[in-house]
Design brief:
9 helices, alpha+beta, about 20% strand, eight-stranded mixed β-sheet
């Protein structure tokens, strides 16, 4: 009797074990699918110190003497003849010299009071502003991802002009989809040049670590594209109908713009669509000579990939509803 009972129960135990194994594998695959998140990246730049200030050459005008450009701007040119300044012209030249000195002092005071000191652009360790702007859009903005892919594939990220164009084109692409704006966040940190690169890299790595894989990247003109599993034949959504059940539809697209600029640059707080529009215009108009480095990051990048509301709240908790 015990032998018969064992023979009856043994197949049932095997069936239950097999079913449990299948469920474990299936749930494990579903969790992996939920964690998978592709990302795109465009970036480049360097944190070299700017060149020293060059002064305009001094040249001799007709009739002797030399022309000394005023260091303060519009200035007062004055002549210092090589002969003595006695006689009737002494008083005139004294007045001109006094006006030039006064102009220099006034212009220096204006620069200091407005923060435009030598440290901004001409010292060996100037101030650098590291700015981050993030925009969360509804996934219905389907034209945005192909536009970002095109920018990544054609951008010249090895030149200051090319990097400025990347910021401009990305800002324009976002400005064209205001009806899909949902979340946003902006912030600026300032540091000296010798520590700004580390600060910039920390922000960039924090954003890149939110991707499971960078499926499209153009960094310093090194273009890389990864073939994702979803793009392989036999593994797409149509071949795996349970994927739509476990993951649900994609809900959001997150775009992050990072910029390191010489001098003081700061975005306004973003709590509305008007403020977001102003911030995008401001970061997209940074001149190339002021721009040190950029990173443009977005997720999802791969076709068929998703970013759900749970993902957004977990990875981007500091974004504000606009």
């Amino acid at each position: 009797m015990p032998n018969k009972l064992q023979q009856t129960i043994k197949p049932l135990i095997k069936a239950v074990f097999a079913l449990g194994l299948v469920l474990v594998l299936a749930l494990g695959h579903a969790d992996g699918a939920l964690a998978a998140r592709s990302g795109g990246r465009i970036g480049g730049g360097s944190f070299r110190a700017p060149s020293s200030r060059t002064y305009a050459p001094r040249y001799a005008p007709p009739g002797g003497g030399y022309y000394a450009p005023s260091p303060g701007g519009f200035g007062f040119p004055f002549l210092l003849p090589f002969w003595g300044i006695g006689g009737g012209f002494g008083g005139l030249f004294t007045i001109l010299i006094f006006l030039a000195i006064a102009n220099f002092l006034v212009q220096t005071f204006r620069r200091v009071s407005s923060g435009e000191t030598e440290d901004t652009g001409y010292s060996s360790n100037p101030t650098v502003s590291v700015t981050r702007l993030q925009v969360g859009l509804l996934a219905q903005a389907r034209d945005l991802q192909p536009e970002l892919n095109r920018i990544a594939e054609t951008a010249d990220t090895n030149s200051p002009e090319g990097r400025a164009e990347v910021l401009q084109e990305t800002s324009l692409a976002l400005l064209r989809h205001p009806e899909y704006w949902v979340y946003a966040g902006a912030g600026t940190q300032q540091a000296k040049l010798n520590s700004a690169e580390a600060q910039f890299n920390r922000l960039a790595l924090a954003e890149r670590s939110k991707f499971s894989e960078e499926t499209l990247s153009n960094f310093n003109n090194q273009l890389k594209a990864a073939q994702t599993q979803d793009a392989l034949p036999g593994t797409g959504e149509l071949d795996n109908p349970t994927r739509l059940i476990t993951e649900g539809p994609g809900e959001y697209i997150i775009v992050t713009l990072l910029a390191a600029t010489l001098g003081k640059f700061e975005l306004p707080k973003v709590n509305s669509t008007d403020e977001l529009r102003q911030a995008l215009r401001q970061i997209g108009s940074i001149p190339s000579e002021q721009l040190l480095a950029i990173e443009v990051l977005w997720t999802p990048q791969a076709e068929g990939d998703t970013l759900t509301s749970d993902d957004l709240f977990a990875e981007y908790p500091d974004l504000t509803l606009v």
